[in-house]
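Feruloyl esterase (Kribbella rubisoli), 551 aa
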Amino acid sequence: MLPKLIGLAHRPRFAVAVIPVAAALAVVLSMPTAGLAAASRSASGAPAAPRSCASLTALSLPNTTITSAADAPAETLQPPIPGLGLPPMPIVAACRVHAIVTTPGANDQIGVDVWMPISGWNGRFQGVGGSAFLAGHPYFMAGAVDAGYAAAVTDAGNKSGNPFDGSFALDSTRQLNWTLIKDFAYRGVHDLAVVGKAVTAAYYGSMAAFSYWNGCSTGGRQGLAEAQRYPSDFDGILAGAPAINWQKYVPASLWPQLVMLQSGDFLPQCKFAAFQTAAIQACDSLGDRVVDGVIGDPAACRFDPRSLIGISTPCGTITATDARVVAKIWQGARSTTGKFLWYGLEPGASFAGIGNTVTANGQTIGAPFPLVLEYLGTWVQQNPPVPRGTWDWTTTTHARFDQLFRQSVDLFGDVMGTDNPDLRGLKKAGGKLLVYHGLADQLIFTEGTVNYYQRVQRLIGDQKATADFARVFLAPGMAHCGGGPGAQPANALSKLVDWVENGRAPKSLDGVIRDPSTGAVVATRPICMYPKVAAYTGQGPTTEASSFACR
């Protein structure tokens, strides 16, 4: 994840930063590159001098055409979408290869970009993930290549370049295009692994000693798709805030908006911030045993939003209806009969992701996260939402929501769900899986990741047998893929590399808290392996990781 804290400059002392949609997208698009420098030591000694980059156009690979191969000088890459706060990314001189892969009988075109440092290769290969409907972009490779990795990304057949454009799921007759859906769901990433490693071997004259996957959000889902379907593709998989349980979590992300719609009460963000702040104040010391503006164990938080009824805020007095709305959002999506459908936001997470609202001229309206509208409109109903189509989400009744939820599960559970707990193939292949997820994630429900890992444990047999090859780390106070006042993983990839190459399984990740204005590290904290949480030992400064133990 890029070391970037979004929207923190003006956060209240006890509140997680409110992250509006544009800034949330910036976090979504930030790739998990923390720890690359520490993990960039050579894996195979000094590699042979690379061959001519241009000669790779003659490389023959099954179902693959190399369309370009050329050396590129060191430069600074600009983000794929301007205006969202993503920083320019420096990258060393590299051989840049673009390939097109076709699936036999499918008439598709999956793009794969492979970039390899001209000098300083560390002997490793890294596949890098995407975000939302963007399967990958060369910009995301900068950190990996700069750290000495040969790296690859794929467009998975989606050529739009827009992370919120899912129109590729429909063909010209507005029917589901299952070829491109499967390309996006899992085939494109497998092609990335096969082609990327082959191109790397051809360029350097030797196979990469180790291969890794690194992605967050959609990138995290892509990593778990590899673990489930192609367990031999990567030696180690780093999956942050994985967008698994897609068929359930995405429709459930409309729940906050539906609750407000049905209640006739779209809360201004300052009211949401009041509930968020109050929850953190009430539950601050849970888990970590310190008051630091972060809930260390949100599952133990029992804050009652009704306690704020009658409290004045800059945008009005909190009402009983406001409190009921917040309680239902925290509870999570339910059917018309009250049946559990999916999880809700954790106490302490910002509402400004899936619960985003916009206030103008004294009126507040809902502003659902764009991916949610695109998926429910284009994929589930085959009717692109406004502005490209005619679906008006504000006409959604609770009964219609139930229908959309069931349709999503029925249509896409087996393809996009990526929640198959059978990881025995990865275990047999000797692969390692490291998953991290922020407990203040405002876009993807953390409990979905916990639920998945518990199902893996049940299938594998027990906690220890699972932890031998797959581990989950929950980061209190961290928002989606980064941001928020909690400690952020600083070395997740290097921990994975050490596990794969030296057999040292991580018991915790090194978490850092940075000054939002300078980026300087102001505190450290261990991020513990689930189900443990970091607790203050009672001795030493609370700003130092050594004062905490995983319990």
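The longest helix spans residues 178-204. The chain has two domains: 31-247+415-510, 249-412. ok done for today
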